Amino acid sequence: MHATDTLAEADRLMTVCNSCRYCEGLCAVFPAMEMRRSFADGDLNYLANLCHGCGACYHDCQFSPPHEFDVNVPRTLAVARADSYRAFAWPRAFAPLFDRNGLAVSLIAALGVAGFILAFAAWHDRDVLFGTHLDAGAFYALMPHNAMALLFGGVFLYAMVAVGMGLRAFWNDIGEPAATLVAPKPLWQAINDAGRLRYLDGGGVGCMNESDKPDDNRRFYHHCTFYGFMLCFAATCVATLYHYLLGREAPYPIYDLPVLLGTAGGVGLLIGPAGLLAAKLRRERILVDEARLGMDVAFLVMLFLTSLTGLTLLAFRESAAMGLLLAVHLGVVFALFFTMPYGKFVHGLYRFAALVRYAREMARHGDDAAA
């Protein structure tokens, strides 16, 4: 017996696939499947998060619709993945928050925080909103640094705790010991596989998105998104060191390291999410978890808006529009952080954890074969 109908269907499909094994060279899911003869819920959640949704197995399968076996592994595992995000969300009361209206909730949160910041500035000094500020520390004319650090440090800490608790619940569900997460060889293999998106290539030919014609577009857009996000995070870390260690306050010159890192990351976060959103809207509907499409769209739109508002602020920071643009950017960033544990952001962490387990399983399987 399984906890949900989706997991029961995933069990049926894995049983069929385990009898056929035609797709074993396409990705990590099928070799991991072949190590099992039965599938508990934790095993199925592990396999679902190990799947990268390349679509190759659907097009290669002789039992895919309209065959009576109705084997559609990408869609079934996509639904199971989304169910796992909801099941392991922390706190549980927030789990259903973004089932269908993630974008609306995110935009409302962004506008609400932007409105709060604008009201705070207007109450403190109305002339600040439309003044031109050129000196170091100009951003803090709108909101004092300590208040800004408390507000955004708090929501970032909350997001990290919530994501960490969800990841911990997922790891316990798949039944892997905590030591595996710090074992050097599986960890390094997972970093290598995740950094290259090794299993988003359909066994080497590319991802099937719009049809059975493969390409590497989704991998390129994923790379732009991930490395763009990491560059922006690096820019924030460098700016924090500048502020607390060197006493240098933002905004920084256009040629300074935080600006260079943030600009490069911002460009990546324009190209990547826009490309992924376009690919998602063109994706074959038979491969898509339609019920959770809003969750995917919300995360991509919020990443895009974070970059767009940040780059717009950079372009007009020496104008009278700076106060309004800064408030909007900070509102979008706050909404992005707050919604992280309850949207598509978690898929990267769950998938990385699944890759760590897969690397450990494959190493152990190789050792057993050698023995």
Description:
The protein is an all-alpha fold and 371 residues long. 39% of the residues are buried. Helix content is 64%, strand content 0%. The model has no long low-confidence stretch (mean pLDDT 91). Helix 9 runs antiparallel to helix 10. The protein has 13 helices and no strands.
What is the distance, rounded to the nearest whole angstrom, between the alpha carbons of the first and last residues?
35 Å
Low-confidence stretches: none
Nearest-integer average pLDDT: 91
Radius of gyration: 23 Å
Helix content: 55-70%
| Main structural class | mainly alpha
Percent of residues in beta strands: under 5%
Gross morphology: elongated
Report the order of strands and helices: HHHHHHHHHHHHH
**Largest sheet properties:** none
Number of strands: 0
> Treating each run of at least 4 consecutive H or I residues as one helix, how many helices?
13
